[in-house]
Amino acid sequence: MQIISPRQHGYLDFLTVILFLLAPVLFGLSEVPALLAYGLAIVHLAVTLTSDFPFGLIKLIPFTVHGWIERIVGPTLVVVPFVLGFADEPMARNFYMGMGLIIIVVGLLTDYRATQRKS
Predict the structure, then answer these.
(1) Half-sphere exposure in the Cβ direction for 16 (13 Å, CA)
(2) Alpha-carbon distance 24 to 39, whole Å?
């Protein structure tokens, strides 16, 4: 069931960028999780602004590819605390696992082909 339009997905992308930027301060993340959050904010913003959907400024990445990127990022975020060694920090672990799960759910609910059908 794909109930999230490309425009709605764009709003969620910008919210994701803001959450990654604020997470180090809001959740008191240590160095590695904090630097990762800042890096992910930059990458997520770059992917959003270069995707071919309503919020893309430079439409280089097809929106379907944007979806595949998120299909990789979501599960990766769930395991990253264990891979990078901060699983023993509850706030950092829970933040990354939660963000991963949210990205997975949003990805499953987004209609990544809507922009192609309207062309």
Answers:
(1) 30
(2) 12
Task: For residue 50, give the nearest of 24, 37, 69 by alpha carbon.
Answer: 69
The residue-averaged pLDDT of 97-103 equals 98
- What is residue 52's three-state secondary structure? strand
From 97, 94, 78, 116, select the one nearest 2 (Cα to Cα).
116
Q: What is the pTM of this model?
A: 0.92
The CA angle 74-25-94, to the nearest 5 degrees, is: 35
Classify 4 as helix, strand or coil.
strand
Q: What is the pLDDT of residue 119?
A: 42
Contacts of 115 (CB under 8 A, 6+ apart): 6, 52, 53, 63
DSSP class of residue 110 equals B
For residue range 57-80, list pLDDT tens digits in order: 999 999 999 999 999 999 999 999
